[in-house]
Design a protein that fits this description.
Layout lengths: L1 E7 L13 E6 L2 E8 L2 H14 L11 E8 L3 H19 L1 E11 L2 E10 L2 H4 L7 E2 L5 E4 L5 E8 L1
Antiparallel strand pairs: 1-4, 2-3, 3-9, 4-6, 5-6, 7-9, 8-9
Helix pairs in contact: 1-2
Length: 156
């Protein structure tokens, strides 16, 4: 469950988002989001980029505000769902989009940061509304090639 969401002033986001290592996968009327990376943290970050990309092009979002998100769950799968749902909650309640992410995982806790800005309908041209991350197709694992995958279906 998400433990803390704090708005921080004077953000210092990464210079640029990392190279795209995410994708969407089809699932009926909903959207599958999948993050891939050399570490579990990178896969979680990329899953968040995939979430944003279901709404808008992440590159269109300027990193003006920073949100800190701390979640805790007994396993990686539930931690991913909590992380994505915390991002969805922040986007909905603050009417904000996020286009940069950073994640650190220690044990059962995720320490995340998201940088973004208020939604500008004309400039961002959002597509769908995401209602929540689900347990459908939920998977967090290290593959045989060493790459991590973090995925689930989001309800749109």
């Amino acid at each position: 469950m998400c433990a803390k969401i704090v708005r921080l002033e004077s953000p210092e986001p990464r210079a640029a988002p990392p190279a795209k290592s995410w994708e969407h996968f089809p699932h009926g009327a909903d959207v599958g989001v999948r993050g891939l990376g050399p570490t579990r943290e990178a896969a979680f970050e990329q899953a968040a980029y995939a979430l944003t990309a279901a709404l808008v092009e992440p590159e269109r979002v300027e990193p003006k505000d920073e949100i800190e998100i701390v979640c805790e769950a007994p396993n990686d799968e539930l931690l991913l769902v909590d992380w994505l749902n915390a991002i969805i909650y922040e986007m909905a309640t603050r009417r904000t989009l996020f286009g940069r992410y950073a994640v650190r995982i220690e044990g059962e806790k995720l320490y995340g940061r998201a940088w973004g800005e208020p939604i500008d309908i004309a400039r961002h041209e959002p597509g769908v509304e995401i209602k929540g991350a689900t347990y459908t197709a939920l998977r967090v694992a290290q593959e045989a090639n060493g790459r991590w995958v973090a995925q689930c279906v989001v309800d749109v």
